[in-house]
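Bumping my old thread because nobody answered last time. Still need a sequence for this structure:
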């Protein structure tokens, strides 16, 4: 049940992101988020994995509800701490990536870089290509190498990392408002 609940919380998080971009999903997102919260409150949390799922769901719902960057970073840090108690390394790495993204939004670049490097190391070791690419992408946006002294790969066509990220989101069909929300910049900057 917890994995399904996690997917529902992720859907609420993504829906909220789109609703903030002006797509009008707000009411449905609040319904799904509320339902997930209610169900999560009734489920058992024994063992190692269930508390980790519960913490992840709480962080996803905090993000869906629009929690501020410091609170969101704390929510994801709690989820990371819960996954650290389990043997599930890729779940831990995925959650660390989410914490790193929250740390960026909170202005905590050095912690975000540290987490991104941990994610990348685990992803490469486990052969998790999508997670590896996500960590590389975040490192590029941060202008950080993935090992202590390495230099990030250059952006294509001489664009800055931020310009490349805006173009990537634009090419995926994101609106200017959604791009601004995703990158934590103003809509004017995104345009």
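Sorry it took so long. Here it is:
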């Amino acid at each position: 049940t917890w994995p399904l609940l996690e997917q529902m919380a992720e859907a609420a998080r993504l829906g909220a992101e789109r609703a903030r971009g002006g797509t009008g999903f707000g009411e449905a997102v609040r319904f799904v988020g509320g339902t997930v919260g209610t169900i999560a409150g009734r489920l058992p949390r024994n063992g190692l994995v269930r508390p980790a799922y519960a913490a992840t769901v709480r962080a996803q719902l905090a993000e869906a509800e629009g929690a501020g960057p410091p609170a969101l970073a704390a929510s994801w840090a709690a989820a990371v701490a819960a996954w650290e108690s389990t043997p599930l390394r890729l779940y831990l790495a995925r959650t660390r990536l989410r914490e790193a993204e929250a740390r960026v939004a909170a202005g905590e670049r050095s912690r975000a870089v540290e987490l991104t490097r941990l994610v990348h190391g685990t992803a490469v070791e486990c052969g998790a290509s999508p997670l590896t690419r996500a960590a590389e992408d975040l490192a590029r946006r941060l202008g950080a190498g993935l090992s202590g002294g390495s230099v990030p790969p250059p952006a294509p066509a001489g664009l800055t990392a931020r310009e490349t990220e805006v173009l990537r989101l634009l090419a995926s069909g994101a609106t200017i408002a959604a791009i601004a929300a995703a990158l934590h910049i103003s809509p004017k900057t995104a345009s």
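The chain has a mean pLDDT of 85. Let me know if any region looks off to you.
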